[in-house]
Sequence to fold (113 residues):
Amino acid sequence: MAKMQLGALVSASQAWLQRSQMTLSSVHEKKWTAAALGGCLAELSGSSAAPVLTVAFRLVHQVQQQGEPVAWISSNENTFFPPDVADGGVDLSALPVIRLATLQQRLTAIEQL
Fold:
């Protein structure tokens, strides 16, 4: 099962690169956009949560403006401050938030979405 999940993640990454017309060597030079990430599982991480959340919720807002579905999936340990997200233009009533304890549970939720 782990190989299948890893394959899905790799496949999504390859699809994103193809849609963005990027090569692996040029990924760091490109911007992530909702159009480039559409239909892909995207994991954003960094040493500080605030900048990563800012980028992530800008993408969420872009997707919502295009009328496309988007969901937020995270661990039970991590969360965001809903008033800040709403101030950034995200429609919280249209954003399913799924918080699950284990990676396996989160991957299962992704498959079901």
